[in-house]
From TrEMBL:
It comes from the Bacteria. One of its GO terms (molecular function) is carbohydrate derivative binding. SUPFAM superfamilies: Homeodomain-like, SIS domain. Keywords: DNA-binding, Transcription, Transcription regulation. It comes from Streptomyces toyocaensis. Residues 22-98 form the HTH rpiR-type domain. It holds the Pfam family SIS. GO terms for biological process: carbohydrate derivative metabolic process. CDD domains: SIS_RpiR. The keyword Transcription regulation applies. InterPro entries: Homeodomain-like_sf, HTH_RpiR, RpiR-like, RpiR-like_SIS, SIS_dom, SIS_dom_sf, WH-like_DNA-bd_sf. This is RpiR family transcriptional regulator. The keyword Transmembrane helix does not apply. Residues 146-287 form the SIS domain.
């Protein structure tokens, strides 16, 4: 751990740079559910045909999508570009990448009669895409702020149910291994009664892909009202949970199918965010974290050694 933390988290409150061309499609997939229908048409058009749209003026794209010039400009800004001109440049770059043959040729739709080798390939591709989309859409300024809060917290509570509950447990186990006080709550009643005890200097994290899970929103609201720093890990940046979050960490929007429930893909993105939080906290608290991690390894070492015969 030789990197200076100030260098790792440099940038503070700087305005995030526009997404690189390769990240544009990921940005569209992540933000489309929160857009108006007219903005979705613009976003889908630029993602589906970057080369064609790159050749259009703002008026031409508005006519193509049956929207207005103002809608096109708003969509460009929501996607992270200062204006339509910048979006056109990104579209041209994305088109060049696709023409070079790097566009994925595999589909992630799994059929009931797919050979197991195809299932493995499709799932592996979709997991990789989820990770890439989450990384591309993750606000590192928000991430750094959440890391700072966790590193200095007296106590951290993490809320999640179902698959998100498993992610909440994963984060608390990691924090405990480096000597921090953390609890995962999947029982909604226990979560709320614990949230009442939080105060400024504590951290509460809600993990919910939909952002509308009441059993997760309620304890986060209570924690927020009691002054704790609150973080939402969600696939919907405009969802109800975010109104009680000081920091929002957005994961990739998962695609659902009959054989692949969204919880599979959303969990992948959530685990990436959890790992980023953990590594960031470990960096910030390295002098205390390293001995704590070594002690936990030592305490469990005998359980991993092969037993010798009598």
């Amino acid at each position: 751990m030789t990197h200076d933390l100030k260098e790792i988290f440099a940038g503070g409150g700087a305005t995030p740079a526009p997404p690189a061309p390769a990240a544009l499609a990921a940005k569209v997939r992540t933000l489309a559910p929160s857009m108006t229908r007219s903005m979705q048409r613009v976003a889908e058009a630029v993602a589906d045909d970057p080369a064609g749209c790159a050749a259009l003026t703002v008026t031409g794209l508005a006519e193509l999508t049956g929207t207005s010039e103002a809608t096109v400009v708003r969509t460009a800004r929501l996607l992270g570009y200062p204006g339509y001109r910048d979006l056109r440049l990104a579209l041209a770059g994305l088109a060049a990448q696709q023409q070079s043959g790097r566009a994925p040729a595999i589909t992630t739709d799994i059929a009931v009669d797919d050979p197991i080798a195809d299932v493995v390939a499709k799932l592996a591709y979709d997991e990789q895409q989820t990770l890439a989309d989450t990384a591309a859409g993750l606000d590192t300024v928000q991430l750094a702020a959440a890391v700072s809060a966790l590193a200095g917290a007296r106590r951290t509570d993490v809320y999640g149910v179902g698959a998100s509950g498993l992610v909440a447990q994963d984060l608390t186990q990691k924090l405990l291994r480096i000597g921090l006080l953390a609890h995962a709550h999947s029982d909604p009643h226990l979560a709320v009664t614990n949230a009442v005890q939080l105060r400024p200097g504590d951290v509460a994290i809600a993990v919910t892909h939909s952002g509308s899970t009441g059993d997760v929103i309620e304890p986060l609201r209570v924690a927020f009202e009691h002054g704790a720093t609150t973080v939402a890990v969600t696939g919907r940046p405009d969802s109800p949970v975010t109104q009680y979050a000081d920091h929002v960490l957005t994961t990739s929007t998962a695609r659902e199918s009959e054989l692949r429930p969204a919880a599979m893909s959303s969990r992948t993105g959530q685990l990436l965010v959890v790992d980023c939080l953990f590594v960031g906290v470990a960096q910030r608290t390295y002098e205390a974290a390293a001995p704590a991690l070594a002690a936990s390894y030592e305490a469990l070492a005998h359980r991993h050694r092969a037993r010798k015969g009598p």
